[in-house]
Structures are given as structure tokens and as C-alpha cells.
Amino acid sequence: MARYERIADALRQRIRTGHLQPGQKLPAEAELVTEYKTTQPTLRKALAELQAEGLIDKRHGVGNFVRKPRQRVERNNSRHQWEKDRARRSEEERLTTGATEHDTGLTISDLVFRASYRDTKANEDLADAFGVPVGTRLLERVYRTRSDGEDAPFNLAHSYLIHDMVAVDPDLLDETKEPWPGGTQNQLHRVGIELDRIVERITARPPTVEETEELGLSKGVSVIVLRKTSIDTTGRVVEISDVTLPGDRTELVFTTPLTRW
């Protein structure tokens, strides 16, 4: 084992055993050089390894700090029925909580929410998924939600609706109405659409540079890519969401009830 690896391992153990707490500043580099009888370049190589693992954060001009654990997100397949059950309830009830709160256990006051809408046209991929011609007018909705105490969002979400399908209700085209109480299923309910089923296809891949930066990913962390297709009671695809989830904070849980013999 190289010298820098032994130093990194020693600091790693101090973090994992709680001798260095989340948010705590590490001793100054000069102190660590003396403590481990090493050189500054070797120490910095050890610290860089811990930073790449997501164990510490380097704040330029301030020092190195033990990274606070990020809010975990559990996304399970009961969330869609939970949202459907709320879709027809009073606005007062729908305002009390949303899907992100469901997945994280946080409250509305713990969250920072951002939404932006824009007109776009269906490319070949989306046209095929919706079963419409290429170039069909769509409403693209981009969502970013994060914990109040963190910088990175829980995921990167792009939701698509067929523009003409929802344009009958101008409120559904207005991003200032977000966060919408009751979510997408309530929005669809307003224009007479009931969902019959939701299909989610999940893959994983290395993140892009932009995803790494926006999601605050450590080196080596993959992203989970989820495409959610919402289908109404007539068999029509009415909404598609492409969601990119950070692999280091997201747990996907699927419970499948089985028919008894």
C-alpha cells in the first residue's frame, strides 16, 4: 500500500468511527503532515482520494471538512397509487404534502422547489413514446427540488405533456402555479384524465459532466435513469417523465403483491 493510501485509510477510519464528525473541520494540512510524518504533496494526494470518495469537502481558503450525509431518497412503486388517491381530494388536503415529501420523509418547509415550463416539439423518441407525429407540440416541465440544507437537487426531472391536451386549462401552462398541490395526477384530473397504470423503465450509466456538477456527484458514482410513462384509462399515453437520479442517495424499492394459492 502506498504512503498516501495508508494516510487516506487512517483518516477514513477516523471518519467512520466518529472521531471526525459530519461537518467537522479536519486538522490543518500542516498538522496532518507532522502527525503522519509525510510531505504536503503526499498528504494532498490522500485528501484528494477522500474527496473523490465523497467523504470530505474541500473549501478553498478555509480547509477540509467531513462531508455531511446527503438526504436519502426512497422511491417505491406505491407512490403512484398514493398520488392517485390524493388527486380528487380538497386543495387543503393536497397542499399538506407532495411526492418528494413522500419519498424523503421531509416536510414542505424543508424543501426548496423550482419549476420551469417551455414549449417544445416531439423528437423521434418522444413521438414514438406518445404515439404521435414527430414535431407534435409538447409542454416540457423541468423540476428541481432540494433539501433546504443542501445545494444539489434530489434528481433532474423533465416531464412532457401533449400541449393541446392540457391547454384547455390555462393554469396547467403556468409555471408560477408550481408546486402544484396533488401533482401531475391532479393536473390531469382537472382536464378529465384518469390514469390506469404507470410504466417505469430503469437503467444506469455514468453521469455526464453536467449531471455530475448539478447533482454534486462524487467520482465513480453512477446515475439511475428512469423513464416514467403514464397511461390513461383509454390506453393513451398522457405523460412522460425522464428522471435522472444520483446513485449515491437513491434507493428504488419495488414490492409486488402475489396472488395466494
In brief:
With 261 residues, this protein is an alpha+beta fold. It has helices at residues 3-16, 29-35, 40-52, 79-87, 91-94, 99-104, 124-130, 163-166, 183-190, 209-215, and strands at 56-59, 63-66, 73-76, 111-121, 137-147, 156-162, 195-205, 223-232, 237-246, 250-253. The protein has two domains: 3-66, Arc Repressor Mutant, subunit A; 73-253, 3-Layer(aba) Sandwich (Chorismate lyase).
Question: In terms of topology, how is this protein built?
Answer:
Elements: H1 3-16, H2 29-35, H3 40-52, E1 56-59, E2 63-66, E3 73-76, H4 79-87, H5 91-94, H6 99-104, E4 111-121, H7 124-130, E5 137-147, E6 156-162, H8 163-166, H9 183-190, E7 195-205, H10 209-215, E8 223-232, E9 237-246, E10 250-253
Parallel strand pairs: 3-10
Antiparallel strand pairs: 1-2, 4-5, 5-6, 6-9, 7-8, 8-9
Helix pairs in contact: 1-3, 4-9
Task: Specify the overall morphology.
Answer: elongated
Largest sheet: 6 strands, antiparallel
Strand order of the largest sheet: 4-5-6-9-8-7
User: SSE string, helix = H, strand = E?
Assistant: HHHEEEHHHEHEEHHEHEEE
User: Helix coverage percent of residues?
Assistant: 25-40%
Count of individual helical segments = 10
Cα distance spanning the termini: 57 Å
Which CATH architecture of the largest domain would you pick?
3-Layer(aba) Sandwich
Low-confidence stretches: none
Rg is: 23 Å
CATH fold node name of the largest domain: Chorismate lyase
SS-derived structural category? alpha+beta
CATH superfamily of the largest domain: Chorismate lyase-like
CATH class value of the largest domain: Alpha Beta
